[in-house]
Structures are given as structure tokens and as C-alpha cells.
Amino acid sequence: MVEQDTSEVSLTDLFNFIRRGLAFALAVAVLAGLVSFFWSRNVAPTYQARATLLVSQPDLLGERNFGGNLVTAPAIDVSAYRSAILSASLLQAALARLGEPATPQAVEAIRRQLTVRTEAARASSLIHIYVRAHDPARAASLANALAQAALEWDQGRAGRNLATIIASIESQIQALDQQLRMLGAPPLRGDLQAKYNSLTQLRAQQLAELNTARVLRHGAVGHLEVLEPALAPLRPVAPRPALNAALAFVLALFVTYGLLLLRESLDARIKGSDDLARLSNQPILAEFARQSTGRRLPLEASNYLRTNLLFATADAHPRVILVTSSASAEGKSSVALSLAESFARNGQKTLLVDADLRAPVLGKEYNLSPQTDTPLISYLETFYQEDAPVAVPLGPSQNLEVIPSFEAPPQPHRTPGPGLPRVPRRLAPALRGHHH
Questions:
Q1: What distances in angstroms separate CA 367 from CA 116, 275, 293, one per listed residue?
Q2: CB of 318 closer than 8 Å to CB of 402
Q3: Using alpha carbons only, what angle is made at residue 287 by residues 286 and 292, rounded to the nearest 5 degrees?
Q4: How much is the pLDDT for 426?
Q5: How far is residue 118's CA from residue 417's CA, in Å, rounded to a whole number?
Q6: Are 226 and 145 in contact (CB under 8 A)?
Q7: What is the mean pLDDT of residues 408-428?
Q8: What's the confidence (pLDDT) of residue 65?
């Protein structure tokens, strides 16, 4: 069963991660800022003009009545005005006011330059028409043309019903004129004269209603009025080299750290003792700095490791400690030698076995000789071995027993491994009292 990793990232880990990638992230961010700055300086400037329209509610138009009946457009939501300004019909009308062809390509180009924002309120609302262009005069004229097109569209909504009424009244008057022509010119006899007078009176009423409708149509008002016409801007709104450089710097910084974090999460290598402890689910007994000269570790480090090993193996007797690593030249011999000497100096009977049959070093380290001292390979190959380990003096009354190795055998991977059947009978009782 695989144990789920429930470790959390501490503030120290986060600080170390930021510190490790700071130089690279700053270099990338500075480069991105410089590229953005010089690129922005070479881009053609863009100017923005704004025209503002006021949307009045119907009850506010009574003050402009002056005793007459004003015809107003039906009230609509302010967002509907925004949709109308962005519609193709109003964009075509604006182009027509400027004397430009209203092609679909031109309409789409203006729509990309156009931004309409609204500010809705209870009594009245505002519509801001923003137009961007490389020419400031062009931006102002296009914004004003769109504002006028919106006003005409709103007034057209007010007079659209009256136009229908006027057309209906005109058709009725034409029908009455035809009937009068069929009756002939007065004076007429009897009932024909009475009918002629009735049709004449009806035609006069229709003509009065037609004149009233025409007057109302000409006086129809909408809810829009120009509050602030657009003026040619004096300064461009884009590009902004300094702002673009700052944004590029910040964005590149975040993106770089994001990529570094992604690489960190995909990197399965062990980068420190914390990773080793988390993956192995075992405590870290000690950490040593890499030795530049000599094989012996600092005395304090050796004693620290010895103390932690004693606590970790308190219930084991004898204590058998194996020092190994995944590759060569990683300090196995230094740790084993320093640890064994620390045990021996502490008054504990210790046996140090050089089981590195590929690259043995302890024999040379203690100036031992294969002619006088029995190597480990002899113990492994001979079931009965009468020789004893070599006693290496460490002080006046302190000895370290060593079984050395001198030369690698021809096929070290096929050499019989140590086990109870191969341990010399004379040494087996002694091992039970050793740390090895």
C-alpha cells in the first residue's frame, strides 16, 4: 500500500523556492519589460474621442411642452440604446453623414474602434461613445456622427406612429375627394346636396386632423440629447511604453515562477534531506558537509550521528549498522570509519568490516597489509577461519577491531555474500558483542 503524501509547503520552502529562482525570473522579467517598452515606442499612436448623450425620462419633458402636446418616443431601457448604437444601421448612417461608403468592411472596422458605455440612473442616464483612431480629428468626427445618428434614430421612433396615422388620413381624404367628384359640382338637387355637404364637412375634419398630425410629427422629440460633443484629443491613449513595460515585467515574473513551479513539481529527483525523509518515511539521523580533504568527518558530526543511532537502535543487540549508498564516491567509507571510531572512543566494543569489494579503502587508511592481516574475502571463501580481526589502536586504552579488504576480486558481484553459514565459528560469538 502506498502512503499518501500529506506534506504541506512551509513558508521556509516557499522562501527558498523564490530565492532559488529570483535571478532567472528577474532576468526574464527585465528582458520582457525592455522588449515591450521598445516595441510600444515604435507602434503608431492611437487617439480616443468621447461623445456623451443624455437619456431623459418622459416625465421630464413636460417642462418643454409650453401648453402644446408633444409626441415622444416610447421609453426603452438604456442598454437598448447601446445595442442600437452598435447596430449596423446606425453605423451605416454615421458613415453616410461623413460622406463615406457604408460597406460591410467599413462597418466592421468602425465597430472594432467603438466602445459604448452606459451610466443608468432613475431620473436620467448617460451614454458615452468612445471612438479610437490613429487620427484625432477622425476619432472626434466619427464619435459626433454616431451621436447624431443615435439622435435621429430616437426621434424617428417618436414620429413613426404619426407617419402611419398621416398616411391613413391622406388615404381617407383621397377617398372623400373621389366621392365628391362623382356627385358633381353644387348646387345639387334634394338629397344629393345634403350628401355633398356632409362629405365636405367630413373632408374638412380629416384635413384638420392631417394638419395637426403633420405639426405633431415635425415637433416629435426623443429621449436623447447631446450632453457633450466629442473634441479632437490632444494626447494619445496608446501605446504607453512605461505602463506596458511594467505590465510585461510583472506578467513575465509570474509566468516564469509558474513555469519554475511546474518544473519543480515534475522533478522527481531528491534535492534535500526533507525530500528523502518524506519519500522514505524514515527519520534523518545526521547531515554532513562534503569532505574536500581526508576521510574523517568532524568529531561533532560523528558524535551526533552515533547518539542518534543509539536512540534509534536501543532495542537491538548486537547493533548491526550498514553504511551504503546508491553510487560510488558518496562518502560511505568516511561515514563508516568516523562512526566506528566514535563508538570505540566511547568505550563500546566495535568491529568495522570493509565490505566494499569493488573499491576497498580501509586497509590503506589504517596502513594494513594483506600479508599480515586477513581480508574479508578470506572469511567469505573459507568456512573455518582461525584468524582474528585486526585491532587498530585509537588511544591508550581504546582499540577498534577491523576486517579490511585490500583488492577487489575478479568478479566481486559473484563473490559469496556474508551469512551465518560463512561466518567463522571463532568470530560468531564475538560478533554478538560488537557494533559493526
A1: 91, 39, 18
A2: no
A3: 135
A4: 41
A5: 86
A6: no
A7: 53
A8: 45
DSSP per residue, 131-189: EEESSHHHHHHHHHHHHHHHHHHHHHHHHHHHHHHHHHHHHHHHHHHHHHHHH-SSS--
Q: Which three cell numbers stand for residue 52?
A: 456623451
H or E stretch covering 203: helix 191-218
What are the phi and psi torsion angles at 153 (to 5°)? Answer: -65, -40
Does the structure show a pLDDT above 70 at 64? no
196: closest CA among 207, 208, 188, 206? 188
Q: How far lies 181's CA from each of 115, 168, 170, 176, 184, in Å?
A: 59, 20, 17, 9, 5
pLDDT tens column, 244-261? 999 999 999 999 999 999
Rounded to whole angstroms, the Cα distance separating 334 from 289 reads 12
Average pLDDT over residues 36-42: 93
Strands 351-353 vs 390-393: parallel, antiparallel or unpaired: unpaired
The per-residue pLDDT of the chain, averaged, comes to 81
Nearest to 70 by CA among 153, 165, 160, 158: 158
Q: What is the pLDDT of residue 218?
A: 66
Grid cell in block for residue 159: 414620429
Q: Residue 351: pLDDT above 50?
A: yes
- The cell numbers describing 299, all together, are 568529531
SS3 351: strand
Characterize 74-103 residue by residue with b for buried, 16 or more Cβ atoms within 10 angstroms of its Cβ, and e for exposed: eeeebeebbebbbeeebbbbbbebeeeebe
Q: Quick check: 408 pLDDT over 80?
A: no
Query: From CA 198, how far away is CA 196, in angstroms rounded?
Result: 5
Amino acid 62: pLDDT: 46
- The percentage of residues in the chain with a pLDDT greater than 90, rounded to a whole number, is 32
- The CA-atom distances, in angstroms, between 384 and each of 288, 370, 378, 380, 404 are 39, 18, 10, 10, 18
For the ranges 170-174, 284-288, 336-340, the one whose mean pLDDT is highest: 170-174
